[in-house]
Amino acid sequence: MKIIDGGVTAPKGFQAASTAAAIKYQNRKDMAMICSEKPCKAAGTFTTNVVKAAPVKWDAEIVKNSPYVQAVVVNAGIANACTGEEGMGYCKETSVKAGELLGIPADAVLVASTGVIGMQLPMERITAGVAGMVPLLARGREAAKLAAEAIMTTDTVSKEAAATVEIGGKTVTVAGMCKGSGMIHPNMCTMLSFVTTDAAITKELLQEALSTDIQDTYNMISVDGDTSTNDTVLLLANGMAENPEITEKNADYEAFLEALHYVNVTLAKYMAGDGEGATALFEVKVKGAASKADAVTLSKSIVTSNLTKAAIYGHDANWGRILCAMGYSGVQFDPEKVDLFFESAAGKIQIVKDGTALNYSEEEATKILSEPAVTAVADVKMGGASATAWGCDLTYDYIKINADYRS
Prior knowledge:
- By secondary structure, the protein is α+β, with helices and mostly antiparallel strands.
- It has 2 domains: 272 residues, L-amino peptidase D-ALA esterase/amidase (4-Layer Sandwich), CATH 3.60.70; 123 residues, Ubiquitin-like (UB roll) (Roll).
- It has 11 helices and 15 strands.
- Strands 1, 2, 3, 4, 5, 6, 7, 8 and 9 form a 9-stranded mixed beta sheet that branches. It has a 6-stranded mixed beta sheet with strand order 13-12-11-14-10-15.
- A hairpin with a 2-residue loop joins strand 11 and strand 12.
- The radius of gyration is 22 Å and the shape is globular.
């Protein structure tokens, strides 16, 4: 696998465009479009929240039943969630407009929205935005970059990733863009992620690859414990790499999974590190668990603990908060076997051995925890399973951002 500089236009046949439609934001782009030259197999995973936004319902139906997909239209600023029948009408109107201008069926157009819940979409601006983007569709790196910027809400940076892999003598590219900063929690988070690939692969294996990979990527991040109404990951494959079609779980499938995992885990970590108000990416590695399920539960419990997140913000090696979070996770383990470590670019330090604090240097621990990316490692010594979760610190600015979000 080779990591490359690219976004959604990196795979063959994909184009992107963006525009300022003034949906909610002023003086910035707030709509994006992705389009493939050829029809795509489509896969998707969506929020586990019972309250599902209209675009989530629309896309789930399209991914499941449409013969193919060829375009995605995204808006930022208004989520089109809790908008009743009108919301579903907005999805249809957007898809019909895009389909007419692109010369494809309306059920080949996916839609996504992010922003404030409960507001109605200004459809005259949405349709004008669609009309404005179609002539701007382009393959270049800049088009992908601007599209990634256009879907941001409280994000402070745009998020893209791309990789190539050789399959059947052909270069296959997987690339993506996402947005997500707040209302993010395991089991899909306020996040939208759009992944494109020129791989030739069956629809069934495409869906399986995505559904499997999100378990160790998007489902392992948390910012604030809130699972959004709009979470969507879409994966489009147009087959233009012309590799032998992947029809079974063989070496070609594993190679594709490697590239897909790189893109997904990179985007997931970007979102965790760009949590609202965050100053640090907080990674939690649990090893020595009795089962993978136990490792996942323990790592998520630590990374979502507000007290632990606050300690990370304060560069405070308050290890008791980590053991506490592990203790209420529901996982059975022996606390008198646990070893805890902190590590970052500044070094690594063990702070607990067999459940008891070591005589470690608080000054050294603070130095390690003052980096922009820090890791806590917990070895429970109960077995051979491990898991990694990602989150961020909890700062004063998180409250400020969300107290003023609607205004």
